[in-house]
Amino acid sequence: MFGDVSAGLIGAGILSLVVMAFSLPVSEPALAQSKELSDRGKAADKNKNGVIDRDEAGGPLKANFDDMDCDKSGTLDGGEIRGFFTGEECPERAAAPKPAEAAAKGGKKPGGGPRARAVRVDAVIVEPLSQTSPVIGRLVASRTGDVAARINGAVVSMPTSIGDRVKKGDVLATIALERLTAKRDKYAAALSTRRAMVQSAKAEFSKKNQELRRMAKLKKSSAFSRARYEDLQRDVEARSAALVERRSQLKEAQAELDQAAIDLYNGEIRAPYDGVVSERHTEVGAYVSVGGRVVTLISDTDIEVEAEVPSRNIVGLTPGFSVRFTLDDGTQHRAKVRSVIPRENARTRTRPVRFVPKFGKKKKPFAVNQSVTVLVPIGKVRQVSTVHKDAVIYSGKNRSVRIVRRGKAFTREVEIGPAVGNRFVVKKGLKAGDQVVTHGNETLGAPGTPVRILSSKSPSANIERGKTN
């Protein structure tokens, strides 16, 4: 608890130091007009151009560079830095009034009321809380395996190497295509021949059918010959059967051409999903058969967490239940239970559980089988309201927040409990959905000060969320 309090105080101190270090102290009427950097800011200005470039920014300046760069010039001046950290935001929006206007308005906005202060807010939320026990787990890839050849042939190229990242559809290897191309062309020619034979059979059938109709019209005439009529009937039936046969041969030729085209397409072995090549099982010049392994592919973007959880703690792990876990780089993240595998280890009395993670900021790339520590609930789960640590204001033994109501900020005394990641349990004073100020508290005066809510998060909130998401 004391560590969290100290961290909050230190975080507030850091923000104050950043404002003091990078912006000059000037009188309030000229506050928005000053663009000059302080001595510390000038020290950070490596190229001595009077502003902080993107590659010169560090800490909160780097994390919030785009928000602070009001004129989108790609640089930060003293006014932009000061405006961001004091809640005034962009200097041009807070331009000092003319002396006559200032005297007439008393330093207030045209409507006569106090100027709205720019703040960032965060909502009070409800989340599960219980006693937890650490369980060692690992990162597993939802999709990983060998990519195999679909046709026989010699490998003529392998553009990918171990460690290469590929997208779905990228070519991993190519099999000699000359024979497959010739085969495709052969079947294409055969298809053209079959089409011509179908046309010929249709013409023969039409001719005989026309003769039959003419003979049928002569049935009441003395020129009618029944023998001739019956012969024409048999000829029409024969021509109809021949046409059916030709059409069947045309379909067969089309299928052969399609198969040749598929084989030609499969001559290029492609990635079935996004991933990283972890192994190569063949080389250029080698002959591969159908089903032969070419590369092993791991999808490191479709990651799950697997942990062996003691059977006695399985009851609370229902699908969709949220837990926290820590990577071996120290960053904390959240995950939801996807499934409890119905298989128990007879020696350890544990069952594998799969979690779908929601990663925040990480310090290094993921790796399959990377170690994680999952905090599994061991007691009764209860729902609690929590508030972000950045919103809590410390005054001796008292704790308070600035709650936003109808565009104005009011002080609210609160009683807080234990920490839950980057948040505190709220025992008294707030309810779910309340909007509290996380950045800009230092600019707010008396209760009821008008506020203007910014969309981006506070610098310290960004840093904290990177550690505990």
List the helices and strands and how they pair.
Elements (H helix, E strand, L loop, with lengths): L1 H21 L16 H6 L7 E2 L6 H4 L1 H4 L6 E2 L1 H9 L12 H7 L11 E7 L1 E5 L2 E10 L2 E5 L4 E5 L7 E2 L4 E5 L2 H39 L9 H41 L1 E3 L4 E6 L6 E2 L4 E6 L4 E8 L11 E6 L4 E9 L9 E9 L12 E7 L4 E7 L4 E3 L2 E8 L2 E6 L1 E6 L2 E6 L6 E5 L9 E5 L5 H10 L1
Parallel strand pairs: 3-26
Antiparallel strand pairs: 1-2, 3-25, 4-19, 5-14, 5-18, 6-13, 7-9, 7-12, 8-11, 9-10, 11-13, 14-17, 15-16, 15-18, 16-17, 19-24, 20-21, 21-22, 22-26, 23-24
| Largest beta-sheet characterization | 6 strands, mixed
Oligomer: single chain
Query: How many beta strands in the DSSP annotation?
Result: 26
Helix/strand structural class: alpha+beta
- Which stretches are poorly predicted, pLDDT < 50 over at least 5 residues? 1-20, 23-33, 92-110, 458-469
Q: Between the first and last Cα atoms, what is the distance in angstroms?
A: 19 Å
* Secondary structure: helix percent: 25-40%
Mean pLDDT metric: 81
CA-based shape = elongated
Short description:
By secondary structure, this protein is of the alpha+beta class. Helix content is 30%, strand content 31%. The chain folds into five domains: 2-112, no CATH class; 123-127 and 383-468, conserved putative lor/sdh protein from methanococcus maripaludis s2 fold (Beta Barrel); 131-142 and 302-380, Elongation Factor Tu (Ef-tu), domain 3; 144-177 and 268-298, Beta Barrel (OB fold (Dihydrolipoamide Acetyltransferase, E2P)); 178-266.
